[in-house]
Design goal:
CATH class of one domain: Alpha Beta
Oligomer: single chain
Bound molecules: S-adenosylmethionine
CATH superfamily of one domain: Vaccinia Virus protein VP39
Order of helices and strands: HHHEHEHEEHEHHEHHHE
Number of helices: 11
Strand content: 15-25%
CATH architecture of one domain: 3-Layer(aba) Sandwich
């Protein structure tokens, strides 16, 4: 909790590390277990940008809304949101300190960028729209996530999100699991399952309704993808949490072993889970 009770909780890198689940932090290299390489992500995240662009085409805005980019990453998608609400405001929230710093640097005072865990989200004001791309599958507890998003929406406010869904990058994940189970890597992965939650459409619809959302629609979509810089892409995105666990001298050998077995050209079989929903108009405001 911050010292000022009126200020929403925003945490620094060290505090983030302390809040990470036991056994995941500090990492062998001392990195926060939730951080990312924001500048590399900004360069190689073409696939995420394309998925976000498709979503933004479905997000009809008047231009004066208060919008949250939930899991803003390096801020590239956030910029597209900023352009769509010239008379509104955009909050950009991410749990990774480097992503929040990158977003602040890229967008300056055009956004309010906050370092928070979305499952415990506390915004300074309720929003009209929660937008999210390629983020929710990184959060294990979707009940807590949807409850937090619902609390921070105005009555009648909308949620439009896409993340990895059931079956997402299954073949690549199997390869990474196989490599992680072998020496010299196995000792670093004992008992580890990763943070991901690749949920199905029906269970997600039920969860959203359970959190109080109405007009819920969820569906899965295949998106096979061939990244332009395969090694940088998998190191920065698909293997980012695996690499937290291996010591620095085993990082390249781990990436090499996974790349070798994943085959060339590298095609990642992405499955996206789309969701749209609304907070009921009659809902009493929660936090606000
Ligand atoms: C693949 S990136 C997507 C970033 C951006 N939305 C985009 O489309 O480029 C996933 C993001 O989710 C963030 N994230 C993961 N777990 C989170 C959590 N519990 N709370 C907030 N952000 C989280 C990561 O830090 C990362 O920036």
């Amino acid at each position: 909790m911050s010292a000022d009770p009126d200020r929403p909780p925003e945490f620094a890198a060290g505090e983030l590390a302390r809040r990470s689940p036991p056994g995941r932090s500090p990492t062998p290299s001392g990195r926060s277990a939730r951080d990312w390489d924001a500048s590399t992500y900004d360069r190689i995240s073409g696939p995420q940008q394309r998925w976000a662009a498709e979503q933004l085409d479905r997000l009809h805005l008047h231009g004066d809304e208060v919008v949250l980019d939930a899991g803003c990453g390096s801020g590239r998608v956030t910029l597209e949101l900023v352009r769509r609400v010239p008379r509104g405001r955009v909050y950009a929230v991410d749990a990774a300190p480097s992503m929040v710093a990158h977003t602040r640097q890229a967008l300056g005072d055009r956004v309010t960028a906050l370092c928070q865990d979305l499952a415990q989200l506390e915004l300074p004001e309720p929003v009209d729209v929660v937008f999210s791309n390629a983020t929710f599958h990184w959060i294990a507890d979707h009940d807590a996530l949807f409850a937090a998003l619902h609390r921070n929406l105005k009555p009648g406010g909308r949620l439009l999100a896409q993340c990895g869904g059931r079956g997402n990058v299954d073949a690549f994940r199997r390869v990474a699991d196989e490599v992680a189970a072998e020496p010299p890597f196995a000792a670093h992965f004992v008992g580890w399952q990763g943070p991901w939650n690749y949920a199905g459409a029906q269970e997600t619809a039920q969860r959203l309704q359970g959190a109080g959302f109405v007009d819920v629609e969820c569906w899965l979509q295949d998106k096979p993808t061939e990244p332009e810089e395969p090694r940088s892409f998998v190191s920065t995105v698909c293997l980012v949490r695996h690499l937290d666990l291996v010591p620095d001298d085993l990082r390249d050998p781990f990436i090499d072993a996974v790349m070798e077995r994943a085959g060339r050209p590298l095609v990642l079989h992405y499955v996206r889970l789309n969701m749209s929903a609304r907070r009921g108009r009659a809902d009493a405001p929660g936090l606000f």
